[in-house]
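Backbone-to-sequence.
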Protein backbone atom coordinates (compact mmCIF):
# COMPACT_ATOMS: atom_id res chain seq x y z
CA UNK A 1 0.00 0.00 0.00
CA UNK A 2 1.37 3.41 -0.93
CA UNK A 3 1.50 5.87 1.86
CA UNK A 4 -0.36 8.88 0.40
CA UNK A 5 2.01 11.63 1.47
CA UNK A 6 5.02 9.69 0.42
CA UNK A 7 4.49 9.31 -3.26
CA UNK A 8 6.68 12.41 -3.28
CA UNK A 9 9.51 10.93 -1.25
CA UNK A 10 12.25 10.38 -3.71
CA UNK A 11 15.38 9.17 -2.05
CA UNK A 12 17.48 10.21 -5.04
CA UNK A 13 16.21 13.66 -6.01
CA UNK A 14 14.99 14.21 -2.49
CA UNK A 15 12.05 16.49 -2.08
CA UNK A 16 13.04 17.70 1.36
CA UNK A 17 11.39 15.73 4.13
CA UNK A 18 10.74 18.99 5.90
CA UNK A 19 8.55 20.09 2.98
CA UNK A 20 6.61 16.84 2.97
CA UNK A 21 6.10 17.04 6.72
CA UNK A 22 4.87 20.59 6.32
CA UNK A 23 2.19 19.32 3.92
CA UNK A 24 1.22 16.64 6.42
CA UNK A 25 0.98 19.29 9.15
CA UNK A 26 -1.21 21.52 6.94
CA UNK A 27 -3.52 18.66 6.03
CA UNK A 28 -3.85 17.92 9.73
CA UNK A 29 -4.75 21.54 10.43
CA UNK A 30 -7.55 21.27 7.89
CA UNK A 31 -8.71 18.12 9.66
CA UNK A 32 -8.83 20.02 12.98
CA UNK A 33 -5.65 18.73 14.63
CA UNK A 34 -4.69 22.28 15.58
CA UNK A 35 -7.87 22.93 17.54
CA UNK A 36 -7.09 21.30 20.89
CA UNK A 37 -8.59 23.15 23.85
CA UNK A 38 -9.75 22.59 27.45
CA UNK A 39 -7.20 19.93 28.31
CA UNK A 40 -5.36 19.53 31.61
CA UNK A 41 -1.77 18.96 30.49
CA UNK A 42 0.84 19.00 27.73
CA UNK A 43 3.79 17.08 29.17
CA UNK A 44 6.36 17.48 26.37
CA UNK A 45 7.34 20.93 25.07
CA UNK A 46 10.49 22.60 23.71
CA UNK A 47 11.54 26.24 23.71
CA UNK A 48 14.41 28.00 21.93
CA UNK A 49 16.64 26.46 24.61
CA UNK A 50 16.51 23.32 22.46
CA UNK A 51 18.78 23.31 19.38
CA UNK A 52 16.06 21.99 17.06
CA UNK A 53 13.41 24.52 18.13
CA UNK A 54 12.56 27.74 16.28
CA UNK A 55 13.34 31.18 17.71
CA UNK A 56 9.58 31.75 18.11
CA UNK A 57 9.37 28.84 20.56
CA UNK A 58 9.03 31.22 23.49
CA UNK A 59 7.65 30.29 26.85
CA UNK A 60 5.45 33.35 27.24
CA UNK A 61 3.97 32.80 23.79
CA UNK A 62 3.11 29.21 24.68
CA UNK A 63 1.65 30.33 28.01
CA UNK A 64 -0.54 33.00 26.42
CA UNK A 65 -2.07 30.55 23.95
CA UNK A 66 -2.40 27.85 26.61
CA UNK A 67 -4.45 30.23 28.73
CA UNK A 68 -6.67 31.20 25.78
CA UNK A 69 -7.22 27.55 24.88
CA UNK A 70 -7.76 26.29 28.42
CA UNK A 71 -4.70 24.04 28.51
CA UNK A 72 -4.10 24.13 32.24
CA UNK A 73 -0.57 22.83 32.78
CA UNK A 74 2.61 22.74 30.69
CA UNK A 75 5.83 20.79 31.19
CA UNK A 76 8.79 22.47 29.49
CA UNK A 77 11.13 19.64 28.53
CA UNK A 78 14.07 21.05 26.56
CA UNK A 79 16.71 18.65 25.27
CA UNK A 80 19.82 17.61 27.17
CA UNK A 81 22.29 15.32 25.38
CA UNK A 82 25.33 13.57 26.83
CA UNK A 83 27.21 12.80 23.61
CA UNK A 84 29.58 15.75 23.05
CA UNK A 85 28.85 15.50 19.30
CA UNK A 86 25.07 15.67 19.74
CA UNK A 87 23.28 18.99 19.20
CA UNK A 88 21.90 19.47 22.71
CA UNK A 89 25.21 18.82 24.44
CA UNK A 90 25.89 22.04 26.36
CA UNK A 91 23.45 23.93 24.12
CA UNK A 92 21.83 25.56 27.15
CA UNK A 93 22.66 25.29 30.80
CA UNK A 94 20.56 23.80 33.58
CA UNK A 95 20.55 27.22 35.25
CA UNK A 96 19.26 29.01 32.12
CA UNK A 97 16.51 26.48 31.60
CA UNK A 98 15.52 26.44 35.24
CA UNK A 99 15.46 30.24 35.51
CA UNK A 100 13.32 30.63 32.36
CA UNK A 101 10.76 28.09 33.52
CA UNK A 102 10.58 29.06 37.20
CA UNK A 103 10.19 32.74 36.32
CA UNK A 104 7.48 31.96 33.79
CA UNK A 105 5.75 29.77 36.36
CA UNK A 106 5.65 32.72 38.75
CA UNK A 107 4.39 35.13 36.07
CA UNK A 108 1.60 32.83 34.91
CA UNK A 109 0.44 31.23 38.15
CA UNK A 110 -1.83 34.16 39.10
CA UNK A 111 -3.69 33.69 35.79
CA UNK A 112 -4.25 30.04 36.68
CA UNK A 113 -1.66 28.40 34.43
CA UNK A 114 0.81 25.89 35.87
CA UNK A 115 4.28 25.67 34.26
CA UNK A 116 6.61 22.84 35.28
CA UNK A 117 10.36 22.46 34.91
CA UNK A 118 11.06 19.31 32.93
CA UNK A 119 13.75 17.92 30.68
CA UNK A 120 14.04 15.47 27.79
CA UNK A 121 17.26 13.54 28.23
CA UNK A 122 18.67 11.63 25.27
CA UNK A 123 19.33 8.16 26.65
CA UNK A 124 22.25 6.05 25.51
CA UNK A 125 23.42 3.02 27.48
CA UNK A 126 27.03 4.18 27.31
CA UNK A 127 26.09 7.38 29.17
CA UNK A 128 23.72 5.81 31.71
CA UNK A 129 25.92 6.45 34.74
CA UNK A 130 26.62 10.02 33.64
CA UNK A 131 22.88 10.62 33.22
CA UNK A 132 22.11 9.09 36.63
CA UNK A 133 24.72 11.24 38.32
CA UNK A 134 23.60 14.39 36.49
CA UNK A 135 19.91 13.89 37.27
CA UNK A 136 20.76 13.37 40.94
CA UNK A 137 22.52 16.72 41.02
CA UNK A 138 19.98 18.55 38.83
CA UNK A 139 16.44 17.99 40.07
CA UNK A 140 13.54 18.57 37.71
CA UNK A 141 9.78 18.39 38.20
CA UNK A 142 9.43 15.84 35.39
CA UNK A 143 11.98 13.84 33.37
CA UNK A 144 11.47 12.30 29.93
CA UNK A 145 14.01 9.80 28.63
CA UNK A 146 14.16 9.38 24.86
CA UNK A 147 16.24 7.53 22.32
CA UNK A 148 17.18 9.81 19.43
CA UNK A 149 19.06 9.37 16.20
CA UNK A 150 22.48 10.85 16.99
CA UNK A 151 25.27 11.90 14.63
CA UNK A 152 26.66 8.36 14.33
CA UNK A 153 23.27 6.63 14.22
CA UNK A 154 22.43 3.93 11.70
CA UNK A 155 19.11 5.72 11.18
CA UNK A 156 20.53 8.97 9.82
CA UNK A 157 19.17 9.63 6.31
CA UNK A 158 22.51 9.09 4.56
CA UNK A 159 22.98 5.66 6.17
CA UNK A 160 19.56 4.20 6.77
CA UNK A 161 18.99 2.87 3.23
CA UNK A 162 22.13 0.74 3.31
CA UNK A 163 21.41 -0.36 6.87
CA UNK A 164 17.91 -1.69 6.18
CA UNK A 165 18.76 -3.45 2.91
CA UNK A 166 18.10 -7.19 3.19
CA UNK A 167 17.14 -7.06 6.87
CA UNK A 168 13.94 -8.04 8.65
CA UNK A 169 11.97 -5.42 10.56
CA UNK A 170 13.11 -7.04 13.81
CA UNK A 171 16.75 -6.62 12.77
CA UNK A 172 16.17 -3.09 11.57
CA UNK A 173 14.49 -1.96 14.78
CA UNK A 174 16.69 -3.88 17.26
CA UNK A 175 19.34 -1.18 17.74
CA UNK A 176 16.58 1.32 18.55
CA UNK A 177 14.32 -0.85 20.70
CA UNK A 178 17.27 -2.33 22.64
CA UNK A 179 18.15 1.19 23.75
CA UNK A 180 14.50 1.90 24.60
CA UNK A 181 14.35 -1.22 26.78
CA UNK A 182 17.53 -0.16 28.56
CA UNK A 183 16.17 3.37 29.01
CA UNK A 184 13.01 2.06 30.67
CA UNK A 185 14.86 -0.46 32.81
CA UNK A 186 17.31 2.19 33.99
CA UNK A 187 14.51 3.54 36.16
CA UNK A 188 15.83 7.06 35.55
CA UNK A 189 12.79 8.50 33.81
CA UNK A 190 9.22 9.43 34.65
CA UNK A 191 8.23 8.82 31.06
CA UNK A 192 9.68 7.27 27.90
CA UNK A 193 9.44 9.73 25.02
CA UNK A 194 7.97 8.82 21.60
CA UNK A 195 8.30 5.04 22.03
CA UNK A 196 8.54 4.20 18.33
CA UNK A 197 9.86 7.34 16.66
CA UNK A 198 12.04 4.95 14.66
CA UNK A 199 8.96 4.70 12.40
CA UNK A 200 9.79 8.20 11.20
CA UNK A 201 13.42 7.51 10.48
CA UNK A 202 12.67 4.39 8.44
CA UNK A 203 10.26 6.01 5.96
CA UNK A 204 10.25 5.37 3.00
CA UNK A 205 12.31 2.15 3.35
CA UNK A 206 9.88 0.70 5.89
CA UNK A 207 6.39 2.13 6.21
CA UNK A 208 4.52 2.54 9.52
CA UNK A 209 2.03 -0.14 8.44
CA UNK A 210 4.84 -2.70 8.77
CA UNK A 211 5.07 -1.96 12.50
CA UNK A 212 1.34 -2.51 12.95
CA UNK A 213 1.71 -5.89 11.26
CA UNK A 214 4.38 -7.01 13.76
CA UNK A 215 3.06 -6.12 17.21
CA UNK A 216 5.48 -8.60 18.82
CA UNK A 217 8.26 -6.05 18.24
CA UNK A 218 6.71 -3.94 20.96
CA UNK A 219 6.59 -6.64 23.63
CA UNK A 220 10.10 -6.09 25.10
CA UNK A 221 9.80 -2.28 25.35
CA UNK A 222 6.27 -2.48 26.76
CA UNK A 223 7.31 -5.11 29.32
CA UNK A 224 10.23 -2.89 30.34
CA UNK A 225 7.86 0.05 30.88
CA UNK A 226 5.43 -2.03 32.92
CA UNK A 227 8.15 -3.66 35.06
CA UNK A 228 9.92 -0.38 35.78
CA UNK A 229 6.79 1.73 36.25
CA UNK A 230 8.01 4.14 33.57
CA UNK A 231 5.13 5.95 31.89
CA UNK A 232 4.27 5.41 28.24
CA UNK A 233 4.05 8.70 26.37
CA UNK A 234 1.52 9.29 23.62
CA UNK A 235 3.52 11.76 21.55
CA UNK A 236 1.53 13.64 18.92
CA UNK A 237 4.47 14.82 16.79
CA UNK A 238 4.03 11.73 14.64
CA UNK A 239 0.75 13.20 13.38
CA UNK A 240 2.70 15.98 11.64
CA UNK A 241 5.58 13.78 10.53
CA UNK A 242 6.14 11.05 7.98
CA UNK A 243 4.72 8.36 10.29
CA UNK A 244 1.34 10.18 10.27
CA UNK A 245 0.27 8.55 13.53
CA UNK A 246 1.04 9.05 17.19
CA UNK A 247 4.17 7.55 18.78
CA UNK A 248 2.94 4.94 19.52
CA UNK A 249 -0.35 4.17 17.75
CA UNK A 250 -3.56 3.22 19.56
CA UNK A 251 -3.04 -0.54 19.35
CA UNK A 252 0.28 -0.26 21.21
CA UNK A 253 -1.32 1.82 23.97
CA UNK A 254 -4.04 -0.84 24.30
CA UNK A 255 -1.42 -3.59 24.52
CA UNK A 256 0.49 -1.69 27.23
CA UNK A 257 -2.70 -1.49 29.32
CA UNK A 258 -3.43 -5.17 28.70
CA UNK A 259 0.05 -6.00 30.03
CA UNK A 260 -0.80 -4.17 33.25
CA UNK A 261 0.64 -0.75 32.40
CA UNK A 262 -1.26 2.17 33.93
CA UNK A 263 1.00 5.20 33.61
CA UNK A 264 0.41 7.16 30.40
CA UNK A 265 1.51 10.71 29.60
CA UNK A 266 0.55 12.90 26.64
CA UNK A 267 2.80 15.43 24.93
CA UNK A 268 2.78 17.51 21.75
CA UNK A 269 6.60 17.75 21.43
CA UNK A 270 6.09 21.30 20.16
CA UNK A 271 9.23 23.00 18.77
CA UNK A 272 7.66 26.07 17.14
CA UNK A 273 4.66 28.24 17.88
CA UNK A 274 2.52 26.93 15.02
CA UNK A 275 2.79 23.38 16.38
CA UNK A 276 1.32 24.38 19.73
CA UNK A 277 -0.94 21.59 21.10
CA UNK A 278 -1.08 20.03 17.64
CA UNK A 279 -2.85 16.67 17.84
CA UNK A 280 -3.27 16.91 21.60
CA UNK A 281 -7.04 16.45 21.41
CA UNK A 282 -6.47 13.35 19.29
CA UNK A 283 -4.14 11.85 21.91
CA UNK A 284 -6.65 12.54 24.70
CA UNK A 285 -9.39 10.85 22.65
CA UNK A 286 -7.09 7.88 22.11
CA UNK A 287 -6.30 7.64 25.85
CA UNK A 288 -9.96 7.93 26.84
CA UNK A 289 -11.08 5.32 24.39
CA UNK A 290 -8.38 3.00 25.76
CA UNK A 291 -10.19 3.34 29.10
CA UNK A 292 -7.86 5.74 30.89
CA UNK A 293 -9.28 8.38 33.23
CA UNK A 294 -6.06 10.07 34.36
CA UNK A 295 -2.54 10.78 33.16
CA UNK A 296 0.68 10.04 34.99
CA UNK A 297 2.79 13.09 35.79
CA UNK A 298 5.25 14.46 38.34
CA UNK A 299 5.62 17.95 39.78
CA UNK A 300 8.80 17.23 41.70
CA UNK A 301 8.23 14.76 44.53
CA UNK A 302 6.16 11.66 43.84
CA UNK A 303 4.03 10.66 40.87
CA UNK A 304 0.65 12.39 40.58
CA UNK A 305 -2.38 11.43 38.50
CA UNK A 306 -3.97 14.17 36.43
CA UNK A 307 -7.65 13.56 35.64
CA UNK A 308 -8.31 13.85 31.91
CA UNK A 309 -11.80 15.31 32.25
CA UNK A 310 -14.70 14.53 29.97
CA UNK A 311 -14.53 14.14 26.21
CA UNK A 312 -15.76 17.71 25.66
CA UNK A 313 -13.09 19.00 27.96
CA UNK A 314 -15.65 20.43 30.38
CA UNK A 315 -14.91 19.83 34.00
CA UNK A 316 -11.26 20.66 33.52
CA UNK A 317 -10.74 24.35 34.04
CA UNK A 318 -7.64 26.44 33.83
CA UNK A 319 -7.20 26.56 37.59
CA UNK A 320 -3.92 25.22 38.89
CA UNK A 321 -4.42 21.49 39.31
CA UNK A 322 -4.19 20.13 42.81
CA UNK A 323 -1.92 17.31 43.95
CA UNK A 324 -4.02 14.40 42.74
CA UNK A 325 -2.68 11.08 43.80
CA UNK A 326 -4.10 7.62 43.62
CA UNK A 327 -4.92 5.07 41.01
CA UNK A 328 -5.88 6.34 37.55
CA UNK A 329 -8.75 3.92 37.29
CA UNK A 330 -10.39 5.43 40.35
CA UNK A 331 -10.32 8.99 39.03
ZN1 LIG B 1 12.60 13.46 21.45
ZN1 LIG C 1 10.96 16.33 22.41
Amino acid sequence: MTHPALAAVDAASGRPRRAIERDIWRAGLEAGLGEARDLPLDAHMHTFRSPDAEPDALLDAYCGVALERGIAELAITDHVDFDPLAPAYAFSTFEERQRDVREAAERWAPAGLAVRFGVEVTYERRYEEDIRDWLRRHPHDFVIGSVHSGPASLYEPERVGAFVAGKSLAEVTAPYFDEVVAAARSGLFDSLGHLDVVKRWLVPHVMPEAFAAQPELYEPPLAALVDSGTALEINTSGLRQLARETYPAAAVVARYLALGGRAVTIGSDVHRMEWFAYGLGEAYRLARSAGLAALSFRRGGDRVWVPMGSASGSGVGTGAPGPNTGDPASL
